[in-house]
Amino acid sequence: RGGLVAGPPRYYANNVSHIQENASSEAESDERKVRRAKRFSLREVAWTITTLDRIRKCGRTTNGNVADGMAAVVMNGDVAHWAGFCTCGSIWGCPVCAAKIRAGRADEIARAVANHMVRDGGTAWMVTLTARHKKHHDLAPLFDAVANGWRKLMSGRAWAGDPKRGQLGERDLLGVRGNIRSMEVTYGSRNGWHPHLHVVLLLNREDPLELANAIVRWDRVWRAWMKKHGFEPSKEHGVNWTKVTAPEEAGEYIAKVQEGKGHLGSELARGDLKAGRFGTLAPFELLDYFGRTGDMAVVPIWHEYEKGTFRRRAITWSRGLRAQLLGDEAELSDEELAAEEVGGETWALMPAESLKAIRRIPGLQARILDTAETGGFVELVNLLTAYHLAFEIGPDAPKADG
Ligand SMILES: [Zn+2]
After folding, report:
1. CA count, 13 A, side-chain hemisphere, 130
2. Rounded to an integer, what distance in angstroms lies between the CA atom of residue 301 and that of residue 50?
3. Does domain 122-330 have CATH number 3.30.70.360?
4. pLDDT tens digits for 202-218?
5. Which of 108, 299, 326, 388 has the highest local Cβ count within 10 Å?
6. Mind listing the pLDDT tens digit for each residue in 139-161?
7. Cα(279) to centroid of ligand 1, in Å?
8. CA 98 / ligand 1 centre spacing (Å)
9. C-alpha neighbours within 13 Å on the C-beta side of residue 392
10. Angle, to 10 degrees, between the axis of helix 95-114 and the axis of helix 26-49?
11. Domain boundaries, the chain
């Protein structure tokens, strides 16, 4: 029960995963707790300002997987989870689902790139394409300019060659196997939205001269395209190439959780956003700032973010590449990845009125899981009782030996 999906063996490429993760040390376990608490609390903030119903239901409304409309605290190894809640599956707008989806994608990409590099002897490059722009551009047209600029690079005679004249294009000269790319966006308190593209370019061989030609052409074409559309990159922006040395790097580069640098200080004050005190913020840092200051200036920005990213694909593989690298491994949608429940031992079942009460206390949802992990079943019961929360003891709750 609980929509458990049996997938291929997983190898977690980065540190964003919180599912099926066996905490190997106390420090890692503490770190995971901090990340989870942060994501849960950011989702609580998102509930208050989102325009999207499914985000408001994520981790709040039960999904019927647990009997009688309850939700359950489930232990999987030494990691506790909530089971029985709806998930929104939004990689853009939900801090909890985004982390889960991105962990799955990073893992998938790392395994694909490992097959390309190790099994097939190819090389890979991480290429970042950015655009500078003036403030107050809407997000959607900026995204479109970046996506169309990418299409421009990947088309025409320079790229595809001229078969009639027997001329090879960059695609063949460079030995391009395909690419995996992600659309990213940050918010600058001075320049507004700053979308960029992270591309992992997979090559069958490495020819320094052809690579040099491509680096020069991409920079020229990208700048010309952006300038034509009013978003000329600055000198330090534009196109940046870095060679992949390990497959995990590629997974992180494409799918790493956009949580920012954590540079919002504790002395945060309302108005700091308008005063341009942050430089650049990752989208979820906007939630963080709003949660801590209540600065209503965030609300229209967040709404524009939700509108600009609505139904927009975040991570894209070039045609046929996934099948080449991962065979017929099933491809889960974002919604399916987010809804995956790892299963485990059901320790406690909580009825609707308790879930409602828990929601009213910031951070309690995460703290219940922390307590089960750190203190075990007895401490969990202790905590629920202290908050006067009705619950049923789950079928798998620990029993006395003998
Ligand atoms: Zn969600």
Report:
1. 15
2. 11
3. yes
4. 999 999 999 999 999 99
5. 108
6. 998 899 899 999 999 999 999 99
7. 27
8. 7
9. 16
10. 130
11. 1-121+331-402, 122-330
